[in-house]
Amino acid sequence: MASLKDISRQCGVSVATVSKALNNHTDISEETRDRVRKVAKELGYSPNFSARALKTNRTHGIGVLFVDEARSGLTHDYFAGVLDSFKSTVEEKGYDITFINCSTKQPNRMTFLEHVKYHGFDGVVIACIDFEAPEVAELVQSDVPVVTIDHVFNNKIAIMSDNITGMTELTDYCISKGHKKIAYLHGEPSTVTTARLTGFYRATDKKGITIPDEYVVATKYRDTVGTYKETMKLLKMKNRPTCILYPDDFSALGGMNAIREMGFRIPEDISVAGYDGIKAITDREPQLTTIIQATDQIGERAAKKLISLIEKPKTTIIEQVVIPGSLQEGKTIARIV
Amino acid sequence: MASLKDISRQCGVSVATVSKALNNHTDISEETRDRVRKVAKELGYSPNFSARALKTNRTHGIGVLFVDEARSGLTHDYFAGVLDSFKSTVEEKGYDITFINCSTKQPNRMTFLEHVKYHGFDGVVIACIDFEAPEVAELVQSDVPVVTIDHVFNNKIAIMSDNITGMTELTDYCISKGHKKIAYLHGEPSTVTTARLTGFYRATDKKGITIPDEYVVATKYRDTVGTYKETMKLLKMKNRPTCILYPDDFSALGGMNAIREMGFRIPEDISVAGYDGIKAITDREPQLTTIIQATDQIGERAAKKLISLIEKPKTTIIEQVVIPGSLQEGKTIARIV
DNA sequence: GAAATTAATGTAAACTCTTACAGTGAAGAG
DNA sequence: CTCTTCACTGTAAGAGTTTACATTAATTTC
Fold first, then answer.
1. What tens digit of pLDDT does each residue of B73-89 get?
2. Which residues of A touch B259 (CB under 8 A)?
3. What is the pTM of this model?
4. Which amino acid residue lies closest to nucleotide D15, measuring CA to C1'?
5. φ, ψ of residue B144 in degrees (nearest 5)
């Protein structure tokens, strides 16, 4: 592969001149610049990322840590949506994204932080289920510019989907349709789950509705088996709820199947709602009532904040940015009397 | 950041010795090795990727080019599934993956190949809609190790979902249920589409079933609006089909909505099937009949083949690997008489 | 006990790039 | 005619690592 040296030899100028010519420095004559450019093209010159990074200590690389229960979060619609928009945004600004290796099967793997330092990423974005993991904490507490999604760390930038308001809005909507016996299958303990529970109770409290404890049950996210089982239990209660809220759109499918299997109609007999706004689910009749999380905005804001933190660390405000979701009414919440 | 030099100073040995000690060379005494290791840990030493890459000309980096119509293919369930499994597999072997920048909005962006050469990726995996794009061709024809997914290039490794057999199987299944008037809304021209069309006609031909031309219509992939419209047209024909096959599971939703809107029942009046096996869709009642593409296997095979090509270029067989899908019967194809 | 072997360590170059600084020659100033 | 300025180009260091080869000391061989 052609290097600056090859070009310099061919052009009869020094390596420094070539470098400056290609990087548009002003102290190079137009003539030289054009000649260098031409030869560079002829030789099929490609700059060498590693050499440049070594010298400048900048990689224009961003590390991505998206981990869900199973693997890398790529098949997780919400994460995928966020990542997709994050990616487009940073790429526009000339950054590349590399996944932080989170394989557990490697013989002597690096920790997340080690991996980040090794690659010299300019910054890191993190979205995952388990923010409590020591390795994640180690990374967040390091001096690498970092933005987290849906979880707040002390003194770090976080982009948050507004789960409190979202869940309040969804619950309010159910109440406005006449529901008082609302069950909530929520996810396992996490920042997100806590926020949504807060929103849920905020709505019911305000309307003076008391939700029996047995209506509020933890299940896993995106686990149709879990919601199926728990839904069955709810339906068999003497004091059956009229409305069931699920951790997410996907897990709602498990619940809906249980409801139908028990011979109930949706929404005439039992109303349901999900959370996320996954098109593959909400585009099907009867359209699932849900809160659409603004993955586009979340990814974009995360990207812009991170780049700002990288490029202007002094003036970037460390804050939690909250991105509202929006209620998609759908057709799975019935009006009751 | 601590470097080899810092360790060498601290230990009173040469930089070379430190390097060898850390890299497990055999010509270093155990005592020295342990001492170096210890000091390295104390100083929080992290190897420098760029320096290493510069010297060795190896990055253990793999470039990923996943482009769909809209963006990066991350929100495309099939691609996401393939990528997820690809990622896990290469990460196990110590490779990292970076997206090849495909932003069109960048001022003076590099071509795909330039970007790959710049980063010095050891290999590249490509899955995209538009394999005809000159930039893609340039990349594929270069001397970078490459594996393509669902598209065959001369003399290059390709991993193919078995679309011919899959579509044959699906069509056969419909025929076995008594359907003769089968419409097929297929995707826009592409390797995948062609293969599936081949499979479709192979099945109908074998059974001596003639499909009217107006039953076979091009729509886009993952476009519910398109399938909605075309389904409407089909339903309004005097000679209405009894069964409609869709380009993919997601676009089938548009068709199903049209069918219901016209007052037909699924599958009693009109049978439908999709393609892909997207759980968010197939896990809902009535379960959509589809072909599940083995994304796990496709990603894994692509990864293994690519790594083999990188590490043992001489002995790696250049071939097209075909991965079969599997029929998921579901409940949207009815038996008719 | 000299020669040969082995084990451990060191030397130095190279990979490619950027950049602070130095140098050159020409033009302009006085 | 000297001095300064300007426009351009060159020199050289250094970023952190790997590795072929050289060196040294200790051990074995006959």
1. 788 899 999 999 999 99
2. none
3. 0.94
4. A55
5. -75, 135
